[in-house]
Amino acid sequence: MTDGTRDGDGTRCVRAGLPEPVPGQPFLPGPVLAAPYHLDPWRGPAAAADGYGRPDNPTRRLLEAAIGELEGGDCRVFASGQAAITGLLLALLRPGDAVVLPADGYFPVRAFAADTLARIGVRVHLAPTVGPYPSFEGVRLVLVETPANPGLDVVDVAALARDAHAAGALVAVDNTTATPLGQRPLDLGADLVVASGTKALTGHSDLLLGYVASRTPDLLDPVTAWRTVTGAVPGAFDAWLAHRSLATLDLRLARQSANAEALARLLADRSDVAGLRWPGLPGDPAYAVAAAQMRRLPGVLSFDLGGAERVARFLDASRLVGAATSFGGLHTTADRRAQWGDDTAPGFVRLSCGVEDTADLLADVTAALG
Ligand SMILES: *Cc1c(COP(=O)(O)O)cnc(C)c1O
Q1: Looking at 156, 174, 191, 335, which residue is catalytic?
Q2: Number of domains in the chain
Q3: Burial 101-119 (b: 16+ CB within 10 A, else e)
Q4: How much is the pTM?
Q5: Whether residue 211 lies in the annotated active site
Q6: What range does the domain containing 317 cover?
Q7: Are residue 276 and residue 185 in the same domain, yes or no?
């Protein structure tokens, strides 16, 4: 196959992880649905790549090759983002280790830390995405989320990695919101990437997926071993669906990001919308770092409509904005995070732009806000 390192994003997404062409075979081979595989009666599992479905699946390996190409590292996929994040933390942290986690990131990670990590004797420090960060002396791992979900703050990964590495700490970046087309944390100096593939990466709101990526076998090997013993693997059909969806990531993100920019400009001009955040908006607190660090901006924005009732009225009146959690899908959705027990204000909304026509979306949101 020709060297694809200079290809653009669209080309890389369309070709990512595909096997060499074989006449009579499809571009993307169908899902291999197998728990056990036939074994060689004489040589056993040594004779073939696949012996049992928990450690081995060829559909999963093609998806891992694809995501690995986009992230610039080796990849292991998991059954969900949470399976990947908790697997990473439990595979790398020992009792007595210290870990720094985002104070304003994905809420279930903090809940898991306060419960499970604290119970096994891991010392947990929380730091806001924009800092200040505690001293990294004696810290084993710093996990950051940038842009953070749901507040969309951004941290300079290269600067943070320099500080952390100087103190001997590892850095993992949750790349869910940005996707590997938005930023490549491993290029910026991170040791590990962890993400949910449930969101924009696959973008069709039809599956759960997570992954860990790294260039360091000493870090990825224990994560792989963890996945094999816990069985936190995605099914072959979900892995195949995810790979199929990855081909359009460039196209989807382009429209989602354009819609987010248009919507951010519209909402910025309204006096009845408070606390608007989108890292691509000049004047946003994250603008400068995002402009320097990110290759493209997410389709997600956040704002405050003042109360739960106004959010409900907005969603009820809108034709195109669906009430749903998660984000990054083809359909525009909005989520009032506080209804999930998150620590956000009652009127705080995370809105995820889909791939609808920009003019239709703007007209619908304008009408629904009244
Ligand atoms: C959704 C999300 C997760 C968890 O992913 P699941 O696939 O839902 O388990 C983790 N981190 C971030 C930033 C997320 O948005």
Answers
A1: 174
A2: 2
A3: bbebbbbebbebbeeebee
A4: 0.97
A5: no
A6: 249-369
A7: no
